[in-house]
């Protein structure tokens, strides 16, 4: 029997998930033992043309998604805290695994959703909320359990890095570079979040919670975007051997967490100097492993879908293992 999933939102990310599922059935069957069927897609505008297979169920009514019999998992790729939080809460209560790309929602309600998922015996995947395809969440969750993380420094917004790169390398104006980022599907529906640093701040909050288990007073954290940087400043920095990078930074210092999100002109000695275009990169300072840097596409249709589908596969494998374990525990010896 096919594994039934639904997708909330069919924009850049939702479409990437749909197409990723269609193009990777062979790999999914091999990993999960069954085909994956997209049993429903939730959208806002019923009149928009969607590139989907004929007969695909598309609705604007969330209740119809929730009513799909035998729904295993829901991919959430809509925008903002609500109605996403309400939708994901209801999916979890119904016993569905959820996989989200929505960092605004997760930065605010991640803890509540994780608690609720434990109560209902389901899993939440949120790799796609932070740094696109870069597997930073599961690296922290699964591969750095003993190490103490003492600092996280990263480029966490693909749009900002893309704009700064285009302004420097191709001499585009800020407006031209932003337009290109929007055309490529990197920017948020409201790009203010990208260029004012708010998007990177949400991602830093998610990483901070995971790595440190607590947070600084976010009201006091300096959050600045790239919107005020001029072409002249970018060229001057270049001539002096520097590049502007939008850097989110959090470190444990004297028993406190200190954070900032802002553009910095870095020299070629800085680990993030060569991270260009839409790439994100994160350097972790750890107690045993030393410094680790992960880098890759930080935004875009398929890089984001990649993070969501890898979460999905890991969650289904995990829940399959739990079922087998429970079944074998019942076998009399
Ligand atoms: N773009 C990217 O590279 C990345 C995006 N993200 C996150 O993923 C999410 C989606 O981003 P993206 O695909 O770029 O956004 P888009 O604006 O391209 O798509 C949003 C989709 O959500 C649907 N939608 C919005 N609000 C509602 C609602 N209330 N009810 C039902 N459907 C709704 C829209 O419907 P309709 O089509 O009818 O308008 C649209 O299909 C966001 O939270 C974003 O922050 C995360 C990582 C990377
Ligand atoms: N708008 C975001 C998309 C991914 O999170 C970005 O540019 O990084």
Automatic annotation (TrEMBL):
This is Homoserine dehydrogenase. It catalyses: L-homoserine + NADP(+) = L-aspartate 4-semialdehyde + NADPH + H(+). InterPro entries: Asp/hSer_DH_NAD-bd, HDH_cat, HDH_CS, HDH_short, NAD(P)-bd_dom_sf. Pathway: Amino-acid biosynthesis; L-threonine biosynthesis; L-threonine from L-aspartate: step 3/5; Amino-acid biosynthesis; L-methionine biosynthesis via de novo pathway; L-homoserine from L-aspartate: step 3/3. The keyword NADP applies. It is an enzyme of class 1 (oxidoreductase). Keywords: Amino-acid biosynthesis, Methionine biosynthesis, NADP, Oxidoreductase, Threonine biosynthesis. It comes from Heyndrickxia acidicola.
């Amino acid at each position: 029997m096919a594994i039934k999933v639904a997708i909330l939102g069919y924009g850049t990310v939702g479409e990437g998930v749909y197409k990723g599922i269609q193009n990777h059935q062979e790999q999914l069957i091999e990993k999960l033992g069954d085909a994956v069927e997209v049993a429903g897609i939730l959208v806002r505008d019923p009149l928009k043309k969607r590139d989907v297979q004929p007969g695909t169920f598309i609705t604007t009514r969330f209740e119809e998604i929730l009513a799909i019999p035998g729904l295993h998992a829901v991919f959430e790729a809509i925008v903002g805290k609500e109605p996403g939080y309400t939708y994901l809460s209801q999916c979890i209560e119904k016993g569905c695994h959820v996989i989200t790309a929505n960092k605004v929602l997760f930065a605010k309600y991640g803890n509540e959703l994780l608690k609720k998922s434990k109560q209902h015996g389901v899993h939440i995947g949120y790799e796609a909320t932070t740094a696109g395809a870069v597997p930073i969440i599961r690296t922290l969750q699964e591969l750095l359990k003993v190490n103490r993380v003492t600092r996280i420094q990263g480029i966490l917004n693909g749009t900002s890095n893309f704009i700064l790169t285009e302004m420097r390398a191709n001499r585009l104006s800020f407006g031209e570079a932003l337009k290109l980022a929007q055309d490529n599907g990197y920017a948020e529906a409201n790009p203010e979040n990208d260029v004012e640093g708010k998007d990177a701040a949400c991602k830093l909050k998610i990483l901070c919670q995971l790595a440190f288990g607590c947070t600084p007073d976010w009201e006091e954290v300096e959050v600045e975007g790239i919107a005020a940087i001029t072409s002249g400043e970018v060229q001057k920095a270049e001539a002096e051997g520097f590049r502007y990078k939008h850097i989110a930074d959090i470190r444990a210092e004297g028993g406190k967490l200190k954070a900032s999100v802002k553009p910095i002109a870095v020299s070629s000695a800085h680990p993030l100097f060569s991270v260009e275009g839409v790439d994100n990169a994160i350097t972790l300072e750890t107690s045993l492993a030393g410094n680790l840097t992960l880098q890759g596409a930080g935004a875009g249709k398929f890089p984001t879908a990649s993070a969501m589908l890898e979460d999905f596969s890991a969650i289904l494998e995990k829940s399959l293992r739990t079922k087998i374990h429970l079944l074998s525990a019942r076998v009399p010896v």
